[in-house]
Amino acid sequence: MDKNTWIGFALIAAIIVGFSMLNRPSTEELERRQHYQDSLRYVRQLEQEAQQAIEQAQAALATNTADTAEVSVSLQEVYGAFAPAAIGTESETILENELLRLHVSNKGGHIQQAELKNYRSYGDTLNPLSLFKADETKLNFTLITTNNRILHTDQLYFTPQPIVADNNGNQVLTMRLMASDESSLDFVYTLSPNDYMVRMSIQNHGMQQVLAQNINYLEMQWNQLIPQHEKGRKFEDRYATLQYMFTDRDIEKLSESKYESKNITGKLRWIGYKDQFFSTVLIADDAITSARLESSLMPKTSGYIKQYQTKASVGFDPTGNNSTDFRIYLGPNHYNTLKAYDNGLEKADRLNLKSLVPLGWKIVAWINRWLVIPMFDLFVSWGLNIGLVILLMTIVIKLIILPFTFSSYRSSAKMRVLKPQLDAINAKYPPEKMQERQQATMALYQRAGVSPMSGCLPMLFQFPIVMAMFWFFPTAIELRGQSFLWAEDLSAYDAILTWQAHIPIISWFFGNHLSLFCLLMTVTNLLYTWLNMQTQAMGNDPSTKIMKWMMYLMPIFFMYIFNDYAAGLSYYYFISLLLTILQTYIFRWSVDDKKLLAQMEANAAKRSAKPKKLSLQERLEKFQREQQQIARENAKRRKY
Question: Which parts of the chain sit beneath pLDDT 50?
């Protein structure tokens, strides 16, 4: 190898070494990691010792159930000061306001069922929608006692205290885990009127002699199954995800379409177990650390969409001077409801729960936030049926993009009236003289004052609005359960025909149903495609014929896509296409091809009569042609 090669290798090695040194953890970070690993090993060791003690005590209890004294000794050996809380009868306490009904279990002291009073699951018109029930959720905290016993709150019995009202009119429920007459651990739930947010506070009273003093955190396990609430499982599954926000306000999520787990080293502000239209969000006042998050798909026959699991650590003060505080959001993914929790807060303190409602990529989300949602809320406030609201929205949006639509049509009309001249150019210059054909075509466009791209730009401006509606309707909870015409639920597909048997090809494309609004949208789209072709200048060469077939196949392809989508979205596109067809006929009536051609010819004559100041590119091209002419003349003189 030569000298330059050795120098290259040396530079690469230097870069690698330098990068490694720059990214090497600091001494403080290494100490934190070592402390965490030591604490983790210590906890695991305590768990193993406690498990052995528990197994021995359980064996003793199984053979001495009649001996109360011996049972008490065995419970004391296993549970220590918490022995009185080791046995009991499971019961629940109801905490509710106008929106929520919470069932709080005395076993574990956690919320075992959350009912949303104003919502119903699909197919159940009697009972409030339950985000989860007793066997579908678990919230457990691990306690380490002074005698090296590791206990889990979900296995201990709490004593519910009477519900009281505080000075602000909030309902307060205290679930008390007794260790002695002077020592207890309280789970305090506070529910405000007309609110989906409940506050949970873990308060330590006189537990210094009961809990280990060298542990300044609690290990938390939070598991939840997400029941299927909607008619269309496909979209509920697509929008259900485990989402979380770091303390620096960066928001991420796990995969919606496959099993995924992540070990989070940063600090989390909240973790959200999200369904298509509802969420359970655990929000820490301080931070959630050392989290392992898992999201699993559930079988279609299980009645569940996803299973979410979290193992994490939360701060805890064993002296009892400070409480461990959370807020738990149990409610709908309604944009304005979630946004309201940030009202009046500084940017650093905002929860950004509104991100649970997906509104599309940046410019699309901006249109949804500042145009679509306010317009939708305005029309809903008039007390109109949702179907009429969508109709009004469609009309308003068509009026907004009307100038772009007309500009696009006028550009297409210009190209259409030039078609005879384009055909003449194509006939004059065969495909072998493609360069001459292109030059002649561009010269014609320049004389006529048209650009082939002028019709594309207006369509480009319309695209973000079209995409905003595409994102809005499947996630708008206001459509849920709302009927219009034959559609009983505008947030799900409106099946006009269903079947159980597998039908080759048809079942692959459309599943087991056919949606009527989607079918109407497809027929209208085919009609619009045919009408649009009549207004465009398209030749008869083979490539153009293939393009025509592709344009007819696109509506069929869209039918395959939208057959499972929300009926409200298909209804919007159906109305939008009808209005577009009406616009096209109005444009045809207002734009006369003969007058347009005469106007273009008049403008061309004016441009040719009036000298035009050349652009920089045209001056360069003219200079290049002059230089080429001079070079040819010089060549002729040298020849003779």
Answer: 66, 537, 613-614, 616-617
